Amino acid sequence: MTAPAAAPPRAALDETRYRSRDGYVMVAISVLLFVAAGLIVARQWAPPALAGLLAVAGAALVPGLYMLQPNEAKVLTLFGRYVGTDRTDGLRWTNPFQSGTKISLRARNLNTSTMKVNDKRGNPVEIGAAVVWRVRDTARAVFEIDDYTKFVSIQAEAAIRHLATLYAYDSGEDLAPEETTLRAGLDAVADALRDDLNLRFASAGVEVLDARLTHLAYAPEIAQVMLRRQQATAIVSARHQIVAGAVGMVEAALNGLSERNLLTLDDERKAAMVSNLLVVLCSDNDTQPVINTGTLYT
């Protein structure tokens, strides 16, 4: 017995623009109907039933009026069927039997809370971000997602957690020199976060305008250890530069003495001079002059 074939996935509902009528014109028509009904009753130009019909018609136009602010839209449905989205600001009018949901199209800020996650190396880090987003497709935001604001918040947190696992917090010997890190590659990390968020928000009809990290630090339990590691790396790098510079200065000094024929030094005396100069140049403390009254051989 064969299993029933699975139903094909339903296509996402995309936004359709709706052309509403000018609300001011409909207000004028409604007022004229009320005035006509009043005149008929007052002057008895026609049967009262006609006046009643005109009054009912004027009253029926009023529920179809609504106001839209700039960067605001109204999603309209008729007996449960989506008919379109009106993005025209001002006083508008539509079929009174249609119901609608207003939705803001303005840019919004989402400032995520600081989260503790593991980076690419597995080190715990604290990370937070600010996301600027807005609704692009109103139909998807209303009908495809139960609560698009909560959806954005949850998916943003998931994207940030995923982002942290793709990059190391800082460079090190285990990483290639050109590899992007969370601390040094802020622009590249921001671009990657924005692209990931746009993929996650596509089903909700939401687009990301900007996304930036607002907080980045090692977790407290390893912060002191990592600080000492960074200090050690900085000390080693500084020592390397100091030694390289000292070697160049010693070489220049020996070459200068040899070119001017000031001293004739054998290998042993050159070694002693090099040793003394390196100690002086590489020492962290001020050197103390010592008067040498002897020689290397006595």
UniProtKB/TrEMBL annotation:
This is SPFH domain/Band 7 family protein. Keywords: Membrane, Transmembrane, Transmembrane helix. The chain crosses the membrane at residues 23-42, 49-68. It comes from the Bacteria. Its main location: membrane. GO terms for cellular component: membrane. It is a single-pass membrane protein. It comes from Pseudorhodoferax soli. CDD domains: SPFH_like_u2.
